[in-house]
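Methods — Computational structure assignment.
A single polypeptide chain was analysed. Its primary sequence is given first, followed by the predicted tertiary structure written as structure tokens.
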Amino acid sequence: MSARVVEDVFNGPGRYADQCTAARAACGAKGVVLLVYEGGRGAGFEVQGPLEMIQQLPGTLRDLAEHIEGQLVEEGLRRG
């Protein structure tokens, strides 16, 4: 499996590439997904990691969304 990072797979570094790189280094992680909401440079996201992680990302994000939605319903912050 290739060790290419997302810059090689998609269209290159985005506006939050430096922050994503810093988080990846600080965590000693093989991959990082950074989601920015109303950031200083606007909203955006950055993904860095091996191709294997990128390939699993859509399913991982769906699972995460379902988990968050379930918690919101449990807390009465959203209807189920």
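Note: The helical segments are 6-9, 17-27, 51-74.
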